[in-house]
Write a structure and sequence with these properties.
The chain has 325 residues and is mainly β. Strands 13, 14, 15, 17, 18, 19, 20, 21 and 23 form a 9-stranded antiparallel beta sheet that branches. β10 and β11 form a beta hairpin. The two termini are 23 Å apart. 33% of the residues are buried.
């Protein structure tokens, strides 16, 4: 039984107080605040990248192999002072989490960071330190919240010009290693739209060695073009950009049986690197060659990436369609 952590989304939101903001469209060391604001010192949070407030992590949990994918969860940012001080300033963070084991979320060193004397900005990281072995098969949601708590320089309190909230959401789905499938039967669900925004790559090498070619023809929504490498084998993988529930597929070959596959294998992945053999480790699904070939799954498969391997005489693909939502 396979289990999947569908996604880990980290949203980073700046919550302003007293009208102070970090202006990301200006120089890195320039902090903008209203002309009528205070003139004293403040501690603040600065984003790591221009306008980037959300982060997504994709992980796959295989029962006998553990978790793979984006398991190294980190959120970088910086903390600083409007004015440099003659002494070190210690910034403390308020870190809370729901659903995660105690102590796995850390910010800086023991949820504090030191801004050395004469300096105004230092880098910080939020880390989730776990091997995810605690994850259960059931659907689970986790949250993390991080804010500036206080800033002290010796016995003096430094005001907080900006609170910084980091929100972490984890949603996971069950996944099986393979499903029953019905060749030559059209799925009842609608075709998933937006294929012209997907990223497909193809190879004629049965050992899946390089080169992989960008083959936009198989997912551009047009039936009058095709991808053809004059090979009895064609494999292609498609990054759909987001996670979908797939109930089957249609392989369109606009040139008839001589250029259509006779056998297929289907694989799915959450990260594009670790693949699950949906049709079985050594099983090829036999299909009737023609212009339109269908493969229906007995249950929905949750995935972001899908790989199809096809065998025939000279395998050509005009367009791939996936059913579900």
């Amino acid at each position: 039984m396979f289990k999947s952590l569908k996604y880990l989304m980290v949203g980073v939101m700046g919550l302003s107080t007293m009208g102070f903001v970090a202006c990301d469209d200006l120089d890195d060391d320039y902090i903008h605040y209203p002309s009528d604001a205070w003139t004293g010192n403040r501690a603040y949070i600065k984003y790591q990248h221009l306008g980037q407030s959300t982060y997504e992590f994709e992980m796959m949990h295989i029962e006998d192999e553990g978790v793979s994918g984006d398991t190294d969860v980190k959120v970088p940012f910086s903390v600083g002072l409007v004015k440099a001080l003659d002494k070190d300033a210690v910034v403390a963070f308020d870190v809370t989490s729901v659903g995660l084991p105690e102590g796995v979320v850390t910010v800086g060193e023991n949820n504090t960071v030191v801004i050395p004397a004469k300096q105004t900005l230092v880098p910080v990281e939020l880390k989730v330190n776990t091997d995810w072995s605690f994850v259960k098969p059931e659907a689970m949601d986790f949250t993390i919240n991080v804010r500036l708590k206080e800033c002290k320089a010796g016995n003096s309190d430094i005001a907080l010009a900006e609170s910084f909230a980091i929100k972490v959401g984890i949603r996971k789905h069950k996944m099986v290693s393979y499903v029953d499938y019905i060749p030559n039967e059209k799925p009842a669900e609608p075709v998933i739209t937006g294929s012209n925004k997907w990223t497909p790559t193809c190879t004629p090498a049965e050992d899946l060695s390089n080169p992989w070619y960008y083959c936009y023809q198989i997912s551009n929504g047009k039936t009058n073009d095709y991808f053809f490498l004059e090979s009895p084998f064609l494999a292609f993988s498609i990054d759909m950009g987001n996670t979908h529930e797939i109930t089957g597929l249609k392989y369109l070959c606009g040139f008839g049986a001589p250029y259509a596959p006779r056998e297929m294998k289907v694989f799915t992945s959450m990260d594009g690197a670790h693949w699950i053999p949906v049709t079985g480790d050594d099983t090829r699904a036999s299909i009737t060659s023609g212009n339109e070939m269908y493969l229906k799954f007995s249950k929905a498969i949750i995935t972001r990436y899908i790989m199809v391997q096809a065998w025939g005489e000279n395998v050509l693909c005009s367009e791939m369609y996936f059913y579900g939502k």
